[in-house]
Amino acid sequence: MSEQLHGAWWTPDAPTVRVPGTLTGIDGGWQLNLIGSLLVKWGGGEGLHLVPPTTIWGSCLGIPYTLLHCYLADVTGVDPHATESTSDQWVMKWRVARLVRGGSVTDTTRFSAAAFEITGLPAWWPLSGLRGPHVRAGAYTAPDDVVVPLNGGTITIGVRTERHSGRRGKSLRERVIAMAGRPSGFTLDDVDKDVAGPLRALVAIGVDEPVSVFNLRLVPAGSPHGEALTRFLDVDPHDGKEPETLPSSVPAPFPLAPAVEDIPSFLPAWLELARRCSVSLDSVEPRSRSGSLQLQLLDVVNAAETLHRSLYADPAEHPFAERVRKALEQSETITFTSRERRAVRDAVKFTEVSLEQRLLALAEGLGSEVCTWLFSGAVRPWAFVTARIRNVLSHGFTASDGVHEDAGALAGALRLTEAVITLRLLVEAGLPSGASLVDRLERHRGMRSLSHQTIADWPALAHRINPRLWAPPEAESPSDNTGENEALPVLPQETATATSPPHVQPPSRK
Questions:
Q1: What is the DSSP string of 15-48?
Q2: What is the DSSP letter of 138?
Q3: pLDDT score at 227
Q4: N or C: which terminus of the chain carries fewer CB neighbours within 10 A?
Q5: Rounded to 10 degrees, what is the CA torsion of 115, 234, 280, 313?
Q6: Is the peptide bond before 253 cis (omega within 30 degrees of 0)?
Q7: Across the strands, what pairs with 233?
């Protein structure tokens, strides 16, 4: 929405205090400029105004609007201790994250159904008669809907048509739409986290491009069945220019997406996995990201550690930690209290499964064929080097080997860790592993390029970090490196080290 909306605005707690203002679309949301001030809860002092996220209601040309997750950006002339409406000369500026057109709602308002579109979804969905240079003659038939159960409700993905007729022409357009409904209803946050967000991430991974949700419409709970088709609320409405549906760079059928006929079994598991592993999924969903290479690497490796903790059971026994506790208990030179002994034991328990082990377990869970193909047989040194780099950057140790400053090592560790997280999420939801997954990866240009990367020699880097633990690599490269090379970003990194973790087997799966 690029046009300006002029109207009156107020908060749900003070509906009689209405302030004139203008809502304007900006990058990443909206901005509300008020001439006057809303009565909100203030905190801080000495010019510091701490205001919690606020819901603002408004009316523009008779249409009700709701602004959710509003943050106070600037204020002039406002007395935070005022108990009455303030002067019109005072000004407030708010940044708005979500906009709902057509009703006054709150974070807890429930809706019986939601419908939305995703850029990239049409490239995944099967074609109908609308393909090729000419529409096939005869009656039009849309592809069958796919219906998936959802916690007492359903998700339906299908094709809907738009028809336009004129004196000299007729047109028919297909739209691929996702719809969700359940008797208990959804909040807007439920729709984002449980339905639209996971579907958006799945489509983005499949088309290997950033995608977005648009035309999100909500049906208020309790709407009669007939009214549900016409009485709905628009969330983040566009200004008439819909997001462009990008053509996929990955040829169909998409190698990193389930076939349409497999969606009824795949999607429920994917939605549950997205809820449990939201941090890990968010770290690898294709999108434009900011921040240095080092910060991106820290985020992704931390997300991999989180994913391992979600997928694998913690060890039932900690023999090394118990040995340490007993050694302290039997010590004759230094006396430790029981509380001190437990504290040391708990600290040792936390480190018994190292980051290296966690990364290795995630990768090996994809199957030996995938590890050989993706890492050129060097999955163990990759796990060792990646864990070492994360520990050095995260904890600020001094490392004389300088691997944490090696641009190729940083970029290679980042991209391969992203690949491992993405593939493990897909496999956990139902995509095949092992040789079948390798067949899919061979058809994916990005993964194929990553398997032929030459910027990070993992055996050589591991030997550079710890020559006693890792033998010198062979003279020849571990792979022929004759394939495509992925363009990976490189940035310098400040110096920092860690002691090398022991090399042990990964823990057993749940």
A1: EEEEEEEEEEEETTEEEEEEES---------TT-
A2: S
A3: 47
A4: C
A5: -60
A6: yes
A7: 218
